[in-house]
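C-alpha cells for chain A. Residues wanted.
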C-alpha cells in the first residue's frame, strides 16, 4: 500500500510542478511525501511540535512499519539545511499536533508569498473523518479557512 500512496503523492507533486513541500515527519504519508519530494528535487521544510527525538518516539517508532531510518535520514538532512522547525510544545500538550498543523500552513503561506508561487494543501487519507480529534480533517479545515485549494490523495486501493 505504501508504494501506491507514494506513487500518488509523487504524481500530485510532479503534476502541480511543486517546488516546495512543508510537512511534518510522522510515519506514513508525511515521510512518503518527504521522500517523494526529495526524489523530485523539491525543497522541503519540516515542522515538528517538539524535539525530534520525542517526535520520533511518539509518531514514528510507536507505529507499525519500519519508518525510523527514513525519519532519521530526512530530519538530519532538513536540520543541516536549516529546514527543520521545532515548535517547542510539550509532548503532553493535547494541542501540540494542532499547533504543528497551523505552523505548516503558516510556513507554506510565507514561502508561497515570498516566491510568488501558487499554494495548495495536500491531504492523504481514506476520505473519512475519525471524529473531532482527526488531525487530517483539522488540517483540511484550516486550509479551507485560508481559502486554499485542497488536493486529496486517497489511501484506498
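Reply:
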Amino acid at each position: 500500500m505504501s508504494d501506491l500512496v507514494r506513487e500518488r503523492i509523487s504524481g500530485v507533486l510532479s503534476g502541480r510542478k511543486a517546488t516546495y513541500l512543508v510537512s511534518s515527519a510522522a510515519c506514513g504519508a508525511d515521510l512518503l511525501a518527504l521522500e517523494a519530494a526529495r526524489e523530485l528535487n523539491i525543497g522541503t521544510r519540516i515542522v515538528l511540535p517538539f524535539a525530534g527525538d520525542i517526535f520520533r518516539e511518539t509518531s514514528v517508532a510507536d507505529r507499525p512499519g519500519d519508518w525510523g531510518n527514513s525519519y532519521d535520514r530526512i530530519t538530519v538532512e532538513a536540520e543541516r539545511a536549516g529546514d527543520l522547525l521545532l515548535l517547542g510544545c510539550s509532548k503532553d500538550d493535547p494541542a501540540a499536533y494542532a499547533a504543528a498543523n497551523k505552523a505548516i500552513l503558516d510556513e507554506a503561506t510565507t514561502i508561497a508569498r515570498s516566491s510568488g508561487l501558487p499554494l495548495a494543501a495536500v491531504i492523504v487519507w481514506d476520505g473519512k473523518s475519525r471524529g473531532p480529534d482527526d488531525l487530517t480533517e483539522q488540517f483540511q479545515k484550516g486550509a479551507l479557512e485560508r481559502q486554499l485549494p485542497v488536493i486529496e490523495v486517497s489511501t484506498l486501493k
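The chain has a mean pLDDT of 96. DSSP finds six helices and five strands in the chain.
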